[in-house]
Amino acid sequence: MAIVEFQGKSFDVDEDGFLLKFEEWCPEWVDFCKEGEGIKELNEEHQKVIDFLQDYYKKNGIAPMVRILSKVTGFKLKHIYELFPSGPGKGACKMAGLPKPTGCV
Amino acid sequence: MAFVSSGYNPDKPMENRISDIGPRDFNEFMPPVIKNNFGKWLYHEILEPGVLVHVAESGDEVYTVRCGTARLMSITLIREMCDIADKHCEGFLRFTTRNNVEFMVDSKDKMVALKEDLMSRKFDGGSYKFPVGGTGAGISNIVHTQGWVHCHTPATDASGTVKVIMDDLFEEFTGHNMPAPVRIAVACCLNMCGACHCSDIAVVGIHRKPPLIDHEYLDNLCEIPLAVASCPTGAVRPSKVEIDGKQFKTVAIKEERCMFCGNCYTMCPSLPLSDKEGDGIALMVGGKVSNRISMPKFSKVVVAFIPNEPPRWPTLTKTIRNIVEVYKADANKYERLGDWAERIGWERFFEKTGIEFTPHLIDDFRDPAYYTWRQSTQFKF
């Protein structure tokens, strides 16, 4: 696996660019990711999604289902795609530092 | 090769982005004779194995030549198909739901020339590129999966097993010697992508050992509750381990409850279970999807384990050949393999095929297992 350096921090990542350790997450990680995810500038709505994903993961040990993400943040799936063009899994979960989605994806 | 841009601008990924346009309309690709007679077909005939003729109300005829393919194919081979279609069929062709390729022409002479051309094409190794067949009461192409070519959860290979089975049963592809069509399917793990659960004969990759647990990485790579919930027998539970004085959140697996389905590995990369000696193949028979005479059926396990023997899987092909031969000799006309086995009784199926009945074949999964046991005195010695 690769180690990336960004603004003095280093991150362990896999071949898809997901963080290998949730504890390594820091705000710099989001800045590092955003370009690859097609996001110019982060706004409050991005932050709200990332914060919720992290809270939910810490509390439950899993990423929330898409419908839960929508319901709690109040953003429809369409809007989540507008915020994170790669979608809630590849985009938002990656930036929030959650493990890579598994299963038949 | 150096990078060549398609015109996509990575700095503005959403600019000029086309999405949600769906597949092309199938009408764009219909041969004229099909387009003109769409919905107006009177009847059809199978002229010979691999060749069909459909006759329309207008009197128009369309001859279809069906050829086997390996499903996994190069662009070179697809181009060769296109060349054939250009030469004989005005550039039109289609693929069937069993991944055969069909070339259509509008007269008998063209069909004869086309068929001759197809049968003359071979790979350097000697295999037919476009063997004609797959119609009627024969054995058509094998619906199969990724195997070791591309998937990460397989217990066996797909392309390899399919090639050896079709080699062995080739004359059944190019003939109509069966009581009814025999559908064969291959899936390389219990996910059963494709048609294994509803095929006359099904090859399914199975494991025989519980997963290894990568304690140090598990919590980082996996969502533990998902791994716990993925287990059909409740063998996975969350736990903690200490390695070199460090505490790790992880899972524990009750090995005597594990039946090696591999679902937890699908959900969690830290639970790999593939194993060279442990992995192999289970054979199932007797499924069907059509409603003809009897209702659709699930296939049933009749051989619990056949080892992986790449590259030719001799035990596997021998076992399948045996089942096919016994069925061919014993079943009535129009009787699918499952219909035949149910009519003669499964104890007779095992007797006639000589397959050993082992305790593995007795269902023990939850309440419905009870219904698969015999609550009757009706059986044959």
Automatic annotation (TrEMBL), chain A:
<comment type="similarity">
    <text>Belongs to the DsrC/TusE family.</text>
</comment>
<keyword id="KW-0963">Cytoplasm</keyword>
<dbReference type="GO" id="GO:0002143">
    <property type="term" value="P:tRNA wobble position uridine thiolation"/>
</dbReference>
<dbReference type="GO" id="GO:0016491">
    <property type="term" value="F:oxidoreductase activity"/>
</dbReference>
<dbReference type="InterPro" id="IPR042072">
    <property type="entry name" value="DsrC-like_C"/>
</dbReference>
<keyword id="KW-0560">Oxidoreductase</keyword>
<dbReference type="InterPro" id="IPR025526">
    <property type="entry name" value="DsrC-like_dom_sf"/>
</dbReference>
<dbReference type="InterPro" id="IPR007453">
    <property type="entry name" value="DsrC/TusE"/>
</dbReference>
<dbReference type="InterPro" id="IPR043163">
    <property type="entry name" value="DsrC-like_N"/>
</dbReference>
<feature type="active site" description="Cysteine persulfide intermediate">
    <location>
        <position position="104"/>
    </location>
</feature>
<dbReference type="GO" id="GO:0097163">
    <property type="term" value="F:sulfur carrier activity"/>
</dbReference>
<protein>
    <submittedName>
        <fullName>Sulfite reductase, dissimilatory-type subunit gamma</fullName>
        <ecNumber>1.8.99.3</ecNumber>
    </submittedName>
</protein>
<dbReference type="GO" id="GO:0005737">
    <property type="term" value="C:cytoplasm"/>
</dbReference>
<dbReference type="Pfam" id="PF04358">
    <property type="entry name" value="DsrC"/>
</dbReference>
From TrEMBL, chain B:
<keyword id="KW-0479">Metal-binding</keyword>
<dbReference type="GO" id="GO:0016002">
    <property type="term" value="F:sulfite reductase activity"/>
</dbReference>
<feature type="domain" description="4Fe-4S ferredoxin-type">
    <location>
        <begin position="249"/>
        <end position="278"/>
    </location>
</feature>
<dbReference type="GO" id="GO:0009337">
    <property type="term" value="C:sulfite reductase complex (NADPH)"/>
</dbReference>
<dbReference type="GO" id="GO:0051539">
    <property type="term" value="F:4 iron, 4 sulfur cluster binding"/>
</dbReference>
<dbReference type="Pfam" id="PF03460">
    <property type="entry name" value="NIR_SIR_ferr"/>
</dbReference>
<dbReference type="InterPro" id="IPR036136">
    <property type="entry name" value="Nit/Sulf_reduc_fer-like_dom_sf"/>
</dbReference>
<dbReference type="InterPro" id="IPR045169">
    <property type="entry name" value="NO2/SO3_Rdtase_4Fe4S_prot"/>
</dbReference>
<keyword id="KW-0004">4Fe-4S</keyword>
<dbReference type="InterPro" id="IPR017896">
    <property type="entry name" value="4Fe4S_Fe-S-bd"/>
</dbReference>
<dbReference type="InterPro" id="IPR045854">
    <property type="entry name" value="NO2/SO3_Rdtase_4Fe4S_sf"/>
</dbReference>
<dbReference type="GO" id="GO:0009055">
    <property type="term" value="F:electron transfer activity"/>
</dbReference>
<dbReference type="Pfam" id="PF00037">
    <property type="entry name" value="Fer4"/>
</dbReference>
<dbReference type="InterPro" id="IPR017900">
    <property type="entry name" value="4Fe4S_Fe_S_CS"/>
</dbReference>
<dbReference type="GO" id="GO:0018551">
    <property type="term" value="F:dissimilatory sulfite reductase (NADH) activity"/>
</dbReference>
<dbReference type="InterPro" id="IPR005117">
    <property type="entry name" value="NiRdtase/SiRdtase_haem-b_fer"/>
</dbReference>
<keyword id="KW-0408">Iron</keyword>
<protein>
    <submittedName>
        <fullName>Sulfite reductase, dissimilatory-type subunit beta</fullName>
        <ecNumber>1.8.99.3</ecNumber>
    </submittedName>
</protein>
<keyword id="KW-0560">Oxidoreductase</keyword>
<dbReference type="GO" id="GO:0000103">
    <property type="term" value="P:sulfate assimilation"/>
</dbReference>
<dbReference type="GO" id="GO:0046872">
    <property type="term" value="F:metal ion binding"/>
</dbReference>
<dbReference type="InterPro" id="IPR011808">
    <property type="entry name" value="DsrB"/>
</dbReference>
